[in-house]
Amino acid sequence: MIAQHELQRLINDKIARLPLNAQPHELYEPVRYFMSLGGKRMRPMLVLMGCELFGGSIEDAIDSAIGVELFHNFTLLHDDIMDNSPLRRAHPTVHEKWNVNVAILSGDAMFVRACEMMMNARKDVVQQVMAVFLANALKVCEGQQFDMNYEQQANINLQSYIRMIELKTAVLLGASLEIGALLGGAKESDAKLLYEFGRNIGIAFQLQDDILDVYGDEQKFGKQKGRDIVANKKTFLMIKALEMANSYTQEELRNWMQATRFVEKEKVKAVTAIYDFLGVRALAQKEMMNYFEKGMQALEQIQTVAHRKKDLVELAESLMVREN
Amino acid sequence: MIAQHELQRLINDKIARLPLNAQPHELYEPVRYFMSLGGKRMRPMLVLMGCELFGGSIEDAIDSAIGVELFHNFTLLHDDIMDNSPLRRAHPTVHEKWNVNVAILSGDAMFVRACEMMMNARKDVVQQVMAVFLANALKVCEGQQFDMNYEQQANINLQSYIRMIELKTAVLLGASLEIGALLGGAKESDAKLLYEFGRNIGIAFQLQDDILDVYGDEQKFGKQKGRDIVANKKTFLMIKALEMANSYTQEELRNWMQATRFVEKEKVKAVTAIYDFLGVRALAQKEMMNYFEKGMQALEQIQTVAHRKKDLVELAESLMVREN
Prior knowledge:
2 copies of one chain form a homodimer. Chain A is mainly alpha-helical.
């Protein structure tokens, strides 16, 4: 197996040399800019690791890996417009640095290039690879729409919330692994199991995100605590708290959510106290572990040389105990 | 050969029954709405006619035909946002009827569905079909960016203008025919010739558009004359006029373009008079015929049963002498 930092170097190298036309400058410069902002490159890593799991060669999978990363960044670029976000990875977003039209169109071009890279897959699996890619690309769009819908709604149930994070984030992690597996020569049933591993770990990862926002170590986590609380984000913790609270506590929560003038630290402290009182952290952790275990079970069922699974197990564990 | 209105019926029928998920409503309803607004369905027609030209079966080409139409409508949907257009085919645009975020995201979903339909092509040609589709999809994005750039620039030369209309419109007409040809079993060289036919006819078509805006029969054309003049659109006529005008006439043109308060009819009349004086209409017609002839020459070179070309010749001619 190739070391993860080696795979990452390979991915970043390939991204840096991604062929793009020179003109029009306004179309391609934002693509170069956005792709250079970095990130963990988790999805292309998963494509390559999925391929290696079945003894496939990295060369066969690298273009699809870049394709998935291009697609992921295209969704971030368009999400940034929709969420009106000024920053992405501590840099100005494309619609801030250029304008909304440039952001829409360069995102579209990025998606076209993503498809082109995916189409470089081997002829014998290209239709399977594209079917997985496109079906999950559509799910990511659905997830983003649900996310926007839920922002406008006062009450969301947990099932809808989990379905949303599954669509918006988890399925693309699963798809990355499944695509890698197909390129590595896996049987379809094994590729599907690897998808299930990624999808479940992905949901666990998002739930962990919700928990870390409130209970993470600020020092280690490198982020201010309670950003979700300040922004009234309907996380697992908030939805569960609203569901469990008696009418008095529920009113207290709603008051904090409706408050337009407040000291941020006080709001975070008060809402956290309610979470603690109701014990929603433990429930979120239980739910998270539940998905984590489901993911691990799927991985175990896959018929391949056992020691090859080690890297994926380690990656999954590191996602659960992480610092950013 | 199947009659054109039969093909159109087939296309509209297939579009009406296009499988789309039910939820989220806000993602898929705009897709259904936009696709139902109609239009000439020229691109899917060209896919089917390209296929028939080589004796291929319509069933083999229909999904790709719908894929191209979905892609085309996706670009219109996003262009409407960028151009801030309130109406499309006399109906509210998606960003007007819903909002910009819905328009961005439902457009993205439409593009994914377009790719899925394209991937239904026969296994032996799917990679060629997708390569043509994606390469030209990227060109369409480039064309839209050039178009937006040129709106901000005082001086555009004719070569840049023609390159822009080629990218924004003509290449997708060419690609539709080429994709159809590939699906119909054409040799690659013949498929490329058919692309050249479509690309050249497409440029001629756009030049004809520029001419008809000023010189079209209002009654027959069903549109008010001189919309391009009122909007200061840099058409072939305007660019050529600015290029040919002496300093006095040039100033007159620039004054009309910079005027913020004017009677529309007077502006149209004055600018048309300058066009007439300079004789730019005849030059535009010459240029148009030049591209038309080039297109016809490419068609002639194609090695296929001659009588099958008849429908394409008729279509090309009807595009040149049209009423809408």
